[in-house]
Design a protein that fits this description.
heterodimer; A: 228 residues; Rossmann fold; Arc Repressor Mutant, subunit A; five-stranded parallel sheet; 12 strands; 21% strand; globular; B: 640 residues; alpha/beta; Beta-Lactamase; 5 domains; five-stranded antiparallel sheet; five-stranded mixed sheet; 17 helices
Amino acid sequence: MTQPLILIIEDEASLRRFLVPTLVNSDYQVLTAATGTDGLAMARDHSPDLILLDLGLPDLEGGRVLQTLRQWSHKPIIIISARTQEADKVQALDAGADDYLTKPFGAEELLARIRVALRHATRTMNDSPVLQCGALKLDLERREVSLDGAPVRLTPLEYRLLEALAQRAGKVATHAQLLNEVWGPVGAGQTHYLRIYMGTLRRKLEPDATRPRYLLTEPSIGYRLNLD
Amino acid sequence: MALGCEARTLRLVHTGFRMAREQGRPWVAVHVEVLDWETAEEADQARVWLKEALDLGAETAWVQAATVSEGLVAEGARRHVAQVVMGRSRPRGPWARLEHARALETIRRGLGARIVTLPMEHAPAAAKPVQTPLDFLGLVLVMATILTMCSIFASALFEAIGFPGLPPVYALGIGFIAHRWGRAFSVPSAVAAVVVFDLLFVPGHWPSRPEDWSNGFYLSAALVLVQMVVLLVDRLHQETRSLHRREAETILLMLVGRALGRCATAREVASVLAERLQGLFRAQAWLLVPGEGDAWRPFPESLEPPPCPRPSEFLPHFSNPSTRADPFEPLFLDGCSFVALAGQGGAEGLLQFRLEGGGPLPQESWGLFQSLAVQGALALERVRWLEQAEQARLDTETERMRNTLLGAVSHDLRTPLAAIQGAATSLLLPEPLPEATRLDLLAMIRDESERLARLLGDLLELTRLQSGSIRIHKEWQLLDEVVGAAVQRLEHRRGPLPIRMDLPESLPLVPLDGGLMEQVLINLLGNALRHAPDSPVDLRAWEEPSGVQIEIADRGPGIPAEFRARVFDKFFRMPRNLKDGGVGLGLAIASTIVKIHGGAIWVEEREGGGARFRLTLPLDGVPPAELETESAALTMGTRP
């Protein structure tokens, strides 16, 4: 198997200095770009398997870069943002970014996110309908959910919510994305629907609903189905 | 408590207030508007007294009724009053006295309540602005009746006493007329009396004998005397009237002064002035304060004032009062009167003012108007000083905060930086270090940089929160989720933690900003775990009428009573924790966040030892609408 190619679009030299050796050391091929314009050109020329995109670029807004990329590429994009860019982050995720990392972050976290994103990209190709994690088993084809082999009864809305999360397993799903997929246009802005159904889902699936193991909260952003 | 409309009523109001306070009872001030009897001025005055009673904690009522007693009985019965306090004007004449007693009896019977009447020196009848006016025919009739009565009485006396007894009889009649209907009318009456007297009592209808002349002269002198007495009485009445007016004005100024004294903003000053002027002169009033760009900033803002020249052109007109003949005279322009609110530092603003008819202010009101303007100016000046003092206090506070911040930051940022720099330079030395030392130094670099990141994050967060730039984004959320997210983040950092949670399923949705509230919980739980590392931390939540209560309790050393209020201050650290690596921002952040949620946070001692942090979050606003039912949602989007 060839080494996946990762494009880093990041203007800060010190961060690139940390990212490049870390990724190379983990058997990835790495390309770097310091500006949005360069990044877009390199993405077009080299079609990387994954893109790490900083939201605070000097020439173009990260959001613009993302939109342009998404016009022709479906490869995973992970956003890197500072803590003050919460709103931009949600916007980028809604616009099609796959995941995010908030500065400062550690190497472990970075590598884990990259693994999930790449795995997800290949899995959609394999199209395996069964997800398994610990005691939780989710069969998307037969629409069955079980815990430790015992079937769990979910209401149709609960199931659809779980399904929407499972389609992004391991990645973050924003409130807006989930609301739109489960409730359609009437759900827009009604985050409390989501919260209540996540509550009941957790009570049915989690051993301890206040310490979720599968259905993780990404505060102010959305949820993530954790299958590690 | 029944209110009239005279100036003395204020005393009645104050007595009512005192009695209610002594007896520890609620009190009601009632004004009975006797239909078709009260003038507009009286009604305005009564409103002033009711407002005063309201300020003193009374409930107020405005009742319309045919008589005062009826109105009082109706209102009293509705409110189940135990006691009625009335001011008693000295009844004039036996008939009025009878009427008064009858009214009291009606009230006593109607309410079964005790009645207290306060003797009040009554402003005499002169307080009424005009005597009942009569048209010409009426006057002639009155004159004829009185002169006829005088003549009948005089003829009876004539038999008994003779001529000298007659002039006083007519003099009495004319005196009555003058007193009752005014001097202007008494002069023709006097002339008529002389004519009638001559016709009736002087033989040959016209004085021919000297003694007849002297009788006629005698009568005329008596009538002139009567006129003079009436003149004096009249003047006395006028004096009393102006005395009463001045008393009313003094009381009014006192009330305005007191109301202005309570104002804390220019807007409040303006509303007090506008309200009083409306009541007093039936006029619309605005307070004009120079605003930005040479334009007026009018108060109240709700109603646009009529246009007037810009401050730079207009204000100089007021700085030199000598250009006007009377320093009290307001400037009159386009249907509005203007007067300067001049304080120590020059004109604070203008009082603009439009009478109902659009004419200038009557001259007798200039003085009162100016007094109000002076009071307004003083109040505005005071408000401005208050604002400046508050600003100065804020500046000092900011300065102090900046110094503390610099001190704390320079120490707390340098420590981890020094460690990182030291470790990194050691690792770069040409002599290779033992593997264990190398790893240890690397771990230290990681830990210290995390500490730096946390500290910087906290500082930014607090600055953002306190600068007011943060926009709180409340959503109705399940507490489970917020608590879960907080615990998740803590455990992600440190591995499984001994946190015991008790969150009943029955907890309602709470309106909160998830990200911020998670920060609060992380800070509180983090503190508890740090100070009580060997025992579990308990987190409980329950609902109370005041809102949702959250409690985080540990078994650590607890917080001594003297520090319990101060632990929420910025950079406050308890003496024993000075070296534990904290900066004293966690609780300050938590408390700020809880406060912008409209909640409260405090710390108590836990029974059996330890600290117990409590916070309450209000359930403000309308909870989200019912969820769509499953079936309704299903028809919309289920797969076939």
